[in-house]
Amino acid sequence: MFNKPIVPRFALLLSVGMPNLCMAISTSDQIVAQVEQVAKEHLLRSADSAGWRDAKFDVAAVVTRAVPPCKGKVAVDAADVRQPTRMRLIAECPGADGWKYDFIVRAKVSATVAVMAADVPAGRPVQGADVAFERRDITLVTDSVGDEAALLGMSARRSLRNGELLRQSMLVEAQVIKRGDPVRIVARREQIEVSMAGEALDAGARGSLIRVRNLSGTVIKARVTGSGTVEPAELPMAR
Q1: Could you tell me which of 52, 149, 163, 214 has the fewest CB atoms within 10 Å of its CB?
Q2: pLDDT tens digits, residue range 156-171?
């Protein structure tokens, strides 16, 4: 009967005196896998924000020296993840004998994006029939077009060729007013609206500023609000 309390007390002494036996240890392979997973999660967020369809990633951490194991929970922070070909992440092991390890992660990215299916001259609107959606390597192309809705109201900034990967930088808002067009100058403030006729002295896309001559011959700066309509530039932009 004297041995009964000794066993639980002995077990308690073991658990208190040897805490390291219960501490999880992250191996080198586990740490590298964690770093790669953090990089992939960042790429997934970027793909979602850019509207890339069916994005796939091939991620590999560059290990230039041995990664020591860690007796605590490793924290991984993104230091610079702007370029998929060279993503910098820092892993940190806590504790008195902890460490920091600077990782370079290289990624290859592919997604279903817009590719030109026809030649489109500069200045012409790009329509849905002008593009096809194909899986392409976009590792070095951060402004690819993943949604047909992105083409709405856009024109070719330069001549586009059949088979060319379409990029946002190749598009510009379509001009809805041409130089010499008759326009309606509309001024709105609260519940009051005043309008008069004028003539566009510049071409412009929606939201751009152009010169307009009103009926009295005065030249004003006006903001393009739509096809054939402008508003005085000094007014707050309509939302």
Answers
A1: 149
A2: 999 999 999 999 999 9
Instruction: Choose among 42, 45, 171, 57: nearest CA to 114.
Output: 171
Task: Name the amino acid, one letter, at 211.
Answer: R
Structure tokens at 230: 């402008």
* Sole residue written with tokens 């508003």: 231
Query: Please, is 36 exposed, middle or buried when counting C-beta atoms within 10 Å of its C-beta (0-12, 13-18, 19+)?
Result: buried
Please, are residues 232 and 187 in contact by the beta-carbon 8 Å criterion? yes
**163: helix, strand or coil:** coil
For the beta carbon of residue 191, count every other beta carbon within 10 angstroms.
Answer: 5
Handedness of CA 131, 133, 136, 139 (dihedral sign): positive
Calpha distance 194→185 (Å, rounded): 8
pLDDT band at 38 (very low <50, low <70, confident <90, very high): very high
For residue 157, CA distances in Å to 121, 209, 216 come to 9, 18, 35
116 in Cβ contact with 20 (< 8 Å): no
CA distances to 40, 74, 79, 86, 110 from 105, rounded to whole Å, are: 10, 17, 11, 6, 16
Residues near 35 by beta carbon (within 8 Å), at least 6 away in sequence? 61, 76, 89, 91, 103, 105
Q: For the chain, what percent of residues have pLDDT higher than 90?
A: 61
